[in-house]
Design brief:
- Helices cover 69% and strands 0% of the residues.
- The protein is mainly α and 137 residues long.
- It starts with a helix and ends with a helix.
Length: 137
């Protein structure tokens, strides 16, 4: 009977090692599926973020296009031409008189005030030294 016990023990060892190999293979497959799923989720999140950014850019560009279309419509209107002719073109319509203001000959130009000097920046070490060691005068 001792001869029967050894083959059974060997079969059990072979079965348990086969079971362990199957568990390890399933564990590796499961982990690879989980990692792949995680990679796909991250890719989907990146795509959604890019889509949202592109949507904001499209909205901003549509607003710019609308503003430019409005400006183009005004620039090609008679009101714009008339406004340009009076202000920049120095042109007049029949019945109008062109008036160009000129400074008197002896008038002195208005002096422009000098800009205030920019405050000098001090190093932090100097500021701390002043706070701790100066007598306050």
């Amino acid at each position: 009977m001792t001869t029967d016990a050894k083959p059974r023990g060997q079969k059990r060892g072979a079965n348990s090692s086969l079971t362990q190999v199957a568990v390890v293979v399933l564990l590796v497959l499961g982990l690879s599926v989980i990692f792949d799923f995680n990679r796909r989720i991250q890719a989907e999140q990146r795509i959604v973020a890019e889509s949202n950014q592109l949507g904001r850019e499209v909205t901003a560009l549509a607003a710019t296009q609308s503003a430019l279309a409005t400006e183009l419509a005004y620039a090609s209107s008679d009101a714009y031409v008339s406004q340009w002719a009076h202000s920049d073109g120095k042109l007049i319509q029949p019945g109008e008189a062109l008036v160009v203001p000129v400074a008197p000959a002896g008038a002195a130009p208005t002096p422009t005030p000098a800009p205030a000097p920019a405050p000098t920046s001090q190093s932090n070490l100097h500021i701390w030294w002043t706070l701790f060691f100066d007598s306050g005068s």
